[in-house]
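haha ok so turns out i had the wrong file open the whole time. this is the CORRECT one, sorry everyone. sequence first:
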Amino acid sequence: MNLPPKVTDRAFARLEEIGAASQGKALRVAVEGGGCSGFQYEIKLDDPASDDLILSHGSERVVIDEISLPFLAGATIDFTEELIGARFVIENPNASSSCGCGTSFSM
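then structure:
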């Protein structure tokens, strides 16, 4: 059994700041083909689906579809504020390499 991804308190705090739950939305983290390294992350506010894995803290939720889940096993979903901007980031132990943009990776 693969470990589910973890979501940091910082990521949940950011979801609370932007009012995701009050809009009935969750943060969707998905893995798609493409990007400069073979796979890319899609991170957006979305409606939860019935077959999603739901990671929640208080009323805030992060959802992951069952196809993306194996690619995100043991990963950490975080929120960072840097000079280049504030964004949700994925620390993925399954990625063998990633590109400079941080949204694309290979396995």
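Strands lie at 6-7, 26-33, 39-46, 53-57, 60-64, 76-82, 85-91, 97-98, 104-106.
again sry for the mixup
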